[in-house]
Specification:
The complex is a heterodimer of chains A (322) and B (659).
Chain A lengths: L1 H31 L6 H22 L10 H27 L7 H18 L4 E3 L2 E3 L5 E2 L4 E2 L2 E2 L3 E5 L5 E4 H23 L1 H11 L1 H6 L4 H27 L1 E2 L5 H14 L4 H20 L6 H15 L14
Antiparallel strand pairs in A: 1-2, 3-8, 4-5, 6-7
Helix pairs in contact in A: 1-5, 1-6, 1-8, 1-9, 1-10, 2-3, 2-8, 2-9, 3-8, 5-6, 5-8, 6-8, 9-10, 9-11, 10-11
Chain B lengths: L2 H27 L7 H26 L7 H17 L1 H15 L3 H32 L3 H20 L12 H11 L15 H4 L4 H19 L2 H11 L1 H6 L4 H24 L11 H14 L4 H21 L4 H22 L10 H13 L19 H8 L4 E12 L2 E12 L3 E5 L6 H8 L7 E6 L2 E2 L5 H6 L2 E3 L12 H8 L8 H6 L2 H20 L15 H14 L4 E5 L7 H18 L2 E5 L3 H7 L2 E6 L2 E6 L1 H6 L1 H8 L1 H5 L1
Helix pairs in contact in B: 1-9, 1-22, 2-9, 2-12, 2-13, 2-14, 3-5, 3-6, 3-12, 4-5, 5-6, 5-12, 10-12, 10-20, 13-14, 13-15, 20-22, 20-23, 22-23
Classes of the chains: A mainly alpha (322), B alpha/beta (659).
Chain lengths: 322, 659
């Protein structure tokens, strides 16, 4: 029973990460009808930038003791990752997707695959600056974060003696960050002018343009916002698993897409719910001892959803305009 | 040339090519003559790459469906063939079967087993292709990409976790055979002489089989491309909605193309398993993307292009690696970076690839025409309408007309809170010309979309010739004899004018994919007929001199006329025209209306016409239906409609009624 509870808790944490990535997928899909395959890799870049920023600050300030490695450093790293990934998202959209907006959707889909591969393999090439090694195919170790003497990967709520259940600081951080991002996103999309413009573009691209909405700016904003959210997910992923590689974004990226489809692609709350559902399903699969097949399970769910309800849980079937 | 001669010629060419392969392959296999052992595998790799590229081209290039799991199908094929030809428990009984019952020599039995393995691989892949394709291909293209990507990953995961299939350690058929040889081979029915066969004779694969597989693949895809099926696939790539409207069952064709492509990928895998160690991780996403790169670089739809790109991209890394001393692990990464850049750049700057959808033969034809003599001056003035021999069915339909060809009863269509069409009723009789008018947004086009199955009515009944048609898909409705044009012209813009009309005759073709692949005499006969008919339809609209032009290059008026010609080519009994005269000048409008009237007479058509120009509507229609906010506000003769106060109010506002 505790095992199951523990797995569900893990599932919730993993699902939150999927949800963070899925939000970016679903926003871009909503506005451009494009599956941004490179999104999982933006998540990966976020993890790397978070890791290197933390390391840089710690080295510069000579923080060696665990007690010194405060949450502030982590927060700064996260901010740095969000800014850098936002910029990356902007550049990808500007250089690769914008010129193809008038072309067939297949063309932009293929380009997205190209961008994804480009990021994955470019970062697999090792760089040496001074004594330090950057990127490369071998896993990079991520520094710990801590408050006082408490390290985040230790159990914070341990009922281990009684039931064996434990919740780590990283789990809490994941939940908190996801909820915060969701709330922020919801606020932006529902209650700001830009959000209203985003909804307008996603409902009708041409009409939105005729109403004087600066389409390019809105699409860029969507990419920047989605990429920043992916960066949050990436940095947390790094802190959680403590080891990152350039290919780490592939599987979470795909699963996040599946999560977005489950929730109804283009639908923001749907993406969050889909992420959590997928995380929980994987936890169940692991609980029953088929953890090798976790990835296969996700795709199986995808095919199931496409068979039964292709528009997803919260999506509406939209008839094609003729 | 008669169709029979052409069919024979096709077979003779094929036989000659096989003969040629048989002739040159021993030379290719002989290490002293041509190849060292390293380049031998490179040559095989090229063949495999070509098969993969050409088969994916059928799916991605011709049909425009994005499959990212081609390597997954290859993996299924490879492991199926490996198990059948290499696993001891399969190996032993089968080999003895071939040997003992058929009296085959050991190498010959190997060959038989390998062929059995290939066929099994293709069948299994076709079946899995159907399983993946059925749920996803009826949806938008994006889902196929994700589902096939998932399929490839699932396949790799399952193989990687299977002890029986060697997990990720690599499965090698020749090793397996040697192992069997060492352990149990002595006890087989072959007796001691079996030891005489060395490792080389254990290998089935040779250049002959490789080249034969390449030839068969190219032949299948090429023959499909240049047939009514190929035109249908291109039409689906251009515009699925218009394809359905001219009677092409798009989902069925997408699935057919996908299944054939998957089976050919299985063939590639089966061949691959015969000379390479198998590792499931080699068949993941990356490999599928590389095959996609072959197709987009070579040209989506071009067999020549994708084959050349496949060979080029297979050879370049090998040559590069041989001539540099760089660490292969690093150059491999740079190669991938270069591939990724190539994908992005070719999409940005060369979207149609190097060859577009043209083949080397098209190029040769073009050159030949260029060199022979200057092209004849195109006669711009249309020839006078001569009596053309149009298909007999049309005239027949005039005789056996049922009373009401198309009827709608109490039809409603709701979009969310908007009732776009509200209990619409209409009975269209043979030879009748009915106008459908109403202010903008009155729901006229929605009525068309509901009648032709593009939208499914929320409630109500549609009957075609007194049989219910409410649940039919657009292509079935087209098959029942209802054709339409679109308000915003939907031609197959990148195809030729002739192709546009030929595609519309699709449902009257009886020769399917097998006949196209085999190039039977009946196939050629049908092609000739369809071409002649298409030219006749074009001539009706004075478009025959533009037959080879690209549809998008036509003037606006010609495009409208071509769309009507295309609709007529489906040989309908009911024609729905959505603002056919939009954007035409008064003279053009008048001649178009004369045209419509004469077509109606000649083919016994019932016509339902949406038009904004009152002069046109009043002049040509016998009966008019007026819609406003989805409701039918009036029906009657032009004279009645002209005087109807509700109609005047709808067009000029309520004030006009009061004042």
């Amino acid at each position: 029973m505790t095992d199951l509870l523990q797995q569900l808790l893990n599932g919730l944490a993993v699902g939150s990460t999927y949800a963070l990535i899925a939000l970016g997928y679903t926003m871009v899909y909503g506005v451009l009808r494009l599956i941004n395959f490179a999104h999982g890799d933006v998540f990966m870049v976020g993890a790397f930038i978070g890791c290197y920023t933390t390391r840089f600050i710690q080295e510069r300030l000579g923080l060696t003791d665990v007690a010194d490695q405060s949450v502030t450093v982590a927060a700064i790293s996260m901010l740095a990752a969000m800014i850098a990934c936002g910029a990356l998202g902007y550049v990808i959209e500007r250089l690769c997707y914008r010129p193809l907006r008038k072309a067939s959707r297949l063309a932009s889909l293929i380009t997205a695959i190209g961008v994804s591969l480009f990021l994955e393999y470019l970062l697999q090439i090792e760089w040496h600056i001074g004594r330090d090694r950057f990127f490369g195919p071998t896993p990079t170790a991520v520094p710990k974060i801590a408050v006082g003497h408490y390290e985040f990967d230790q159990a914070i709520v341990s009922i281990k003696n009684a039931t064996g259940l434990s919740v780590s600081g990283n789990d809490l951080l994941t939940f908190a960050a996801t909820l915060l991002c969701l709330a922020l996103l919801f606020y932006i999309v529902r209650f700001t002018r830009t959000g209203k413009a985003m909804r307008a573009v996603s409902t009708n691209y041409d009409a939105a343009r005729l109403m004087g909405i600066h389409i390019d700016r809105i699409i860029s904003f969507t990419f920047v916002l989605g990429s920043a959210l992916a960066a949050v997910g990436g940095v947390i992923y790094g802190f959680r698993y403590r080891s990152i590689t350039p290919l780490l974004g592939v599987i979470p990226g795909l699963k996040a897409f599946i999560a977005a489809v489950i929730g109804g692609i283009g639908n923001i709350p749907g993406a969050a719910v889909g992420g959590i559902i997928l995380g929980l399903v994987e936890a169940f699969v692991a609980y029953f001892g088929w953890s090798e097949y976790q990835d296969a399970a996700a795709f199986f769910i995808l095919i199931l959803v496409l068979l039964i309800r292709p528009e997803g849980i919260f999506g509406k079937a939209v008839p094609e305009k003729v | 040339m008669t169709p029979a001669t052409r069919s024979w010629l096709h077979f003779a060419t094929l036989a000659a090519l096989i003969g040629l392969i048989a002739l040159i392959s021993p030379a290719l296999d002989n290490p002293r003559l041509l190849m060292s052992s390293l380049t031998h595998n490179t040559f095989y790799d090229c063949c495999i790459a070509v098969i993969l590229a050409v088969s994916l081209n059928l799916i991605l290039g011709l049909t425009g469906q994005f499959s990212l799991g081609h390597a997954g199908f290859m993996a299924v094929g490879a492991y199926t063939a490996a198990v059948i030809t290499g696993k001891p428990e399969f190996f032993l009984p089968q080999l003895s079967f071939w040997h003992a019952h058929l009296g085959l020599s050991v190498p010959a039995s190997f060959t038989c087993m390998a062929i059995a393995g290939m066929l099994a691989a293709m069948l299994l892949c076709a079946f899995l292709g159907l399983l993946v394709g059925l749920p996803t291909l009826r949806l938008r293209g994006d889902y196929l990409a994700i589902a096939t990507l998932g399929f490839g990953e699932i396949v790799a995961t399952i193989i990687g976790n299977s002890e029986y299939l060697g997990r990720t350690f690599g499965l090698r058929i020749d090793n397996m055979r040697q192992l069997w040889w060492a352990e149990g081979g002595k006890n087989t029915p072959f007796g001691p002489d079996v030891i005489a066969y060395n490792n080389n004779t254990l290998n089935f694969i040779s250049s002959f089989w490789m080249l034969l597989a390449v030839l068969v693949t190219i032949l299948i895809v090429r023959n499909i491309k240049y047939s009514t099926t190929g035109r249908a696939l291109l039409a689906i790539r251009e515009d699925p909605v218009a394809s359905e409207a001219v009677g092409i069952p798009t989902t069925r064709y997408k699935i057919a193309a996908f299944v054939i492509g998957a089976a050919l990928a299985g063939l590639a895998g089966a061949l691959y398993s015969q000379y390479q160690a198998l590792n499931p991780n080699g068949f993941r996403f990356m490999y599928s993307t590389m095959i996609v790169l072959y197709v987009i670089l070579g040209g989506q739809g071009s067999i020549t292009g994708s084959a050349l790109a496949a060979i080029f991209l297979t050879l370049v890394p090998v040559i590069f690696q041989r001539n540099t001393l760089l660490d292969p692990a690093i150059t491999e990464k740079w190669r991938m970076v270069a591939y990724a850049l190539l994908i992005i750049l070719s999409m940005l700057f060369m979207r149609h690839g190097i060859f577009g959808r043209y083949e080397i033969t098209d190029l040769a034809q073009w050159l030949y025409r260029r060199l022979r003599k200057p092209p004849p001056i195109p006669h711009t003035s249309p020839a006078p309408a001569a009596p053309y021999a149009l298909p007999i069915e049309n005239r027949k339909s005039k005789i056996e007309n049922p009373p009401s060809l198309l009827s709608a009863h109490d039809l409603s269509m709701q979009f969310g809170g908007l009732k776009a069409v509200d209990s619409f009723s209409l009975a269209l009789n043979a030879g009748e010309l009915v106008g459908l008018i109403g202010p903008n947004g009155a729901g006229k086009t929605t009525v068309f979309n509901v009648l032709t199955g593009v939208y499914r009515a929320t409630s109500g009944q549609v009957d075609i010739a007194d049989r219910s048609a409410r649940h039919l898909r657009p292509h079935s409705i087209s098959k029942r004899g209802v054709a339409r044009t679109f308000q915003n012209i939907r031609l197959f813009a990148n195809l030729s004018v002739l192709d546009n009309v030929q595609i519309a005759q699709h449902m009257h073709h009886k020769q399917g994919i097998p006949a196209a692949i085999l190039r039977t005499p009946a196939f050629f006969r049908e092609e000739d007929n369809s071409r002649k008919n298409a030219l006749d339809y074009l001539a009706l609209f004075h478009l025959d001199h533009l037959a080879d032009a690209c549809a998008s290059s036509l003037s606006y008026g010609d495009q409208r006329r071509l769309e009507i010609a295309r609709a007529l080519a489906t040989r309908p009994r009911v024609l729905l025209l959505d603002e056919p005269a939009a954007g035409m000048n008064p003279t053009e409008k008048r001649s178009l209306m004369d045209m419509i009237r004469s077509l109606r007479q000649r083919f016994g058509l019932a016509v339902l016409l949406i038009e904004h120009d009152m002069k046109v509507i009043m002049g040509v229609c016998e009966r008019i239906v007026v819609l406003d906010y989805g409701k039918t506000i009036a029906t009657g003769t032009p004279e009645e409609i002209r005087r109807n106060p509700a109609v005047i109010a709808a067009y000029l506002g309520a004030a006009a009624k009061e004042g």
